[in-house]
Amino acid sequence: MTALGPLTTLTDRIERLTRLDEPGKALGRTIRKAVSAGAVKDALSGTWLGHPVHPPMTDVVIGSFVGASVLDLVGPDDGRASRRLLQLGLLSAVPTALSGASDWADSELGDERVRRMGLVHAGSNVLALSLYALSLAARRGGPSRAGSALALAGSTVLGASGFLGGHITFVRGTGVNQTAFDVGPSDWTDVIDAGDVLRDGTAFAMAGETPVVLGRHRGQVFALHDRCSHRGCALSDGEVEDRVITCPCHGSRFDVRDGAVVRGPATATQPVLDARERDGRIEVRVRQPGR
User: Fold this and answer.
1) CA atoms of 134 and 125, how far apart (whole Å)
2) CA distance 201 to 216
3) pLDDT digits (tens, 9 = 90+) for 205-253
4) Residue 291 lies in a domain
5) DSSP per residue over 133-180, as a string?
6) Would you call 240 helix, strand, or coil by DSSP?
7) Alpha helices for the chain (secondary structure H)
8) How far is C-alpha 37 from the chain's CA centre?
């Protein structure tokens, strides 16, 4: 068994915990109902930043808590700096948890493994935060060995939870741009009869291995990658109004002219392809620089 074997076994076991499905589905529905598409959803998703907001926010939480433990070992005797860092970590954990919950709720329907792992990840974070809160309470009268021990215990739990969170992102692909590794054909590729691309609505086609959604805007054919950059849903199942196409799953909206995000929760621009009509057929290719 390799050095990573025990960790892989742990994640596999968590992902097979079917007993987590019912509470996970219920929680996911509640979160999606409470945080629907709009300004709050965009803020929690990081649409305004052009990047998911949850990962950098976790750095603030982790850095504050770990910094407190470091100061416990090497800092001044009065312990005020450690207390301030614990307070910062606890306060910043609230918006961090909200952004993570919003991201998870958009993903748990599509992957039961993410649903189960996300619940364990969240439960571990609650335990870690409880330990840090107890650590802060133990320091009210000044430096405390119990407070330091509780903070170290919190760091241990937080580290394990961070591993599970990394698994959700890097192994299961939650929160990453779903089109990052599929930009489309570099050469003009025939995809569909021009008559099938109507003025109203969308058409679906394959450009080699790349799924494409096509339509018409002011008489001109547009083409975008069909897999939504947010969670991979088919944009061809959505609606087009004027210059905006709306994802049917989570409500992200993109400008068909350049793929710009008009409304989240998507954070990454939707890939746009050049399109032309030739001999009654539509051809597409990766958008060329300067277009």
Assistant:
1) 14
2) 8
3) 999 999 999 999 888 999 999 999 999 999 999 999 989 999 999 999 9
4) no
5) HHHHHHTTTS--HHHHHHHHHHHHHHHHHHHHHHIIIIIT-TTS-TTT
6) strand
7) 5-15, 21-34, 39-45, 54-74, 80-107, 112-138, 145-166
8) 15
What is the residue range of 270's domain? 189-286
What type of residue sits at position 57? M
DSSP secondary structure letter of residue 11: H
Contact 75, 290 (CB under 8 A): no
Please report the pLDDT score of residue 123 as a whole number. 97
Distance of CA 275 to the CA centre of its chain: 30
Whether residue 128 lies inside any domain: the answer is yes
Q: Give the predicted TM-score (pTM) of the model.
A: 0.86
User: Per the domain annotation, does 179 fall within a domain?
Assistant: no
Give yes or no: residues 167 and 198 share one domain: no
- The answer, yes or no, to whether the previous bond of 265 is cis (omega within 30 of 0) is yes
| Mean pLDDT of the region 167-196 | 93
Torsion angle in degrees (nearest 10) through CA of 230, 234, 238, 240: 80
- Report the candidate in 95, 104, 93 with the shortest Cα–Cα distance to residue 136: 93
Please give the DSSP secondary-structure letter assigned to residue 269.
Answer: P
The pLDDT tens digits of the residues spanning 13-57 come to: 999 999 999 999 999 999 999 998 899 999 999 999 999 999 999
Q: Do residues 15 and 139 both lie within one domain?
A: yes
Mean pLDDT estimate for the chain: 93
